[in-house]
Fold:
Amino acid sequence: MNDIIKAMKERRSVRKFKSDMPDKKDIEQIVEAGLYAANGRGKQAVITVAVTNRELRDKISDINRKIGGWSEGFDPFYGAPVILIVLADKNWPTCVYDGSLVMGNMMLAAHSLGLGSIWIHRAKEEFETDEYKELLKSLGVEGEWEGIGHCAVGYADGDIPTPADRKDGRVFWVE
Structure:
């Protein structure tokens, strides 16, 4: 079987991570894979904020937890030490689709490097707040950005979940 298709079939969301930080070269490869995602009219209107700073990572986790309505102490990133935040230009008509493809590429890249990942939502709500808009300004990011998702990355703490059986009746052929 083709290695890419095999990775697509084997990749699963990880919901428990070790605290060990992955090598920076691996994180860079994951981010680069996102840069090569398909995008509307070649605009490349998606950016990634790579967070490996533990203090900022924990702050983002706590805000995400509050938006999600969970109790104090819950970590919506499941202990992952790396958070890759994907944002897309709000003024670009395919922004959500383009950002989603970036997320998919990054999760497959993480899997191919022996790392676990999971897509965590609520980036949209986060980046509608003044605090997150200020974070982008502090990084030199101008413009209006839609939060697409967080790609939480790290070493899986335990076995990778097995895939559920695929549901029948989801493909319709017109020949």
